[in-house]
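User: Good morning. I'm curious how cytidine-5'-monophosphate would be positioned relative to this chain. Could you predict the structure with it bound?
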Amino acid sequence: MSLNIPFIIALDGPAASGKGTLARKLAEYYNLALLDTGILYRAVGWNVINSDGNPEKETDALKAIEKLPDTDLQNPALRSESTGAAASKVAAIPAVRKALRDFQRQFAYNPPENKAGTILDGRDIGTVICPETPYKLFITADVKTRAKRRFLEEFGESGTEEDLENILEDLIVRDERDTNRPMSPLKKAEDALLIDTTNSSIEAVFEEAVSFISNKKK
Ligand code: C5P
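Assistant: Good morning! Here's the predicted structure, ligand included:
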């Protein structure tokens, strides 16, 4: 590892693939500062909707970025699948991606002094935000499995068959939009380790990731 580049883990993958859970475990294990980059796009999407704007319109999305410093990133409404859909619309606008890029790089390359490095999870961390890091992971899972996970997260035991169907449809549309947008599409970096979490436990996925990262660190 070059002395000038801090320890950065780039973790990408589609919605509800398990990357958030893995990111938190890796952050704890390696003592890293964690940035869930999806929350930035979610906050922008949320701000657009709340001001009755159109998440596909550049001017509305850019106005929403200005409100970011006053947005409560802990607001549970940001986590809903409907906010995810708005996020993926604003995320397809190149000016939005450019505006959020510097913040993400700044975070990645400037870990707080008490941290050994940083970990960012998103869609384009290994390909666009931090392509220099050798520690790249791409996490995926079958879309039906991902829909079931998101459904349980959002509705617990009280969800209906229809809620599950709606989430599945939303995820399919979101995957399609994220994968096919011209700028920074969801894509595995060539040198990223691919982990499919469909039939794996969190522990097994964590161990595979740690073994890949630790081997590269040697
Ligand atoms: O990861 P999460 O589901 O919270 O992301 C919400 C949306 O934000 C994604 O569907 C994607 O469109 C967008 N996003 C992105 N690039 C990132 C992180 C999220 O385009 N690095």
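The pocket of cytidine-5'-monophosphate is lined by residues 15, 37-38, 41-42, 84, 87-88, 91, 122-124, 174, 178 (CB under 6 Å). The CA atoms of residues 201 and 207 lie 10 Å apart.
Let me know if you'd like a different ligand tried.
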